[in-house]
Amino acid sequence: MSRRFTPKVVTANALLEGDAVWLRADGSWSRDMHEAQLFEEEELATEALTHALAQPDLVVGAYLADAEAGPTGPVPTHFREAFRTRGPSNYNHGKQAEA
Question: Nearest 5 degrees, angle CA 24-CA 15-CA 55?
Fold first, then answer.
């Protein structure tokens, strides 16, 4: 028996900077998960992932991550994705310093 599809976002790492990025509805990448497109249909999520994987000059390691709708956009449902929204943990600048 197959599992029920849960909402997803497409995420990857920016090729040059290494930052976590999320795919927007217009096909561009954002460093803010709240701007990501939330996919509630498996077929559309798979198509978006295929689009992301076809951009090796921009991103690496693209995958589908579980998420849910939040008041300002998608929010992570797993601690790994929550951690990625805060940026690198070994530096106190950027997203870490803003928190």
Answer: 55
Q: Model's pTM, two decimal places?
A: 0.84
Residue type, 5: F
Residues near 4 by beta carbon (within 8 Å), at least 6 away in sequence: none
Question: Is the separation of the CB atoms in 73 and 25 below 8 Å?
Answer: no
State phi, psi for 94 to the nearest 5 degrees: 65, -135
Please state whether 42 falls in left (phi above 0), alpha (psi between -120 and 50) or beta.
alpha
* Mean pLDDT lowest among 35-44, 57-66, 80-89: 80-89
Instruction: Write out pLDDT tens, residues 11-39.
Output: 999 999 889 999 999 999 999 999 999 99
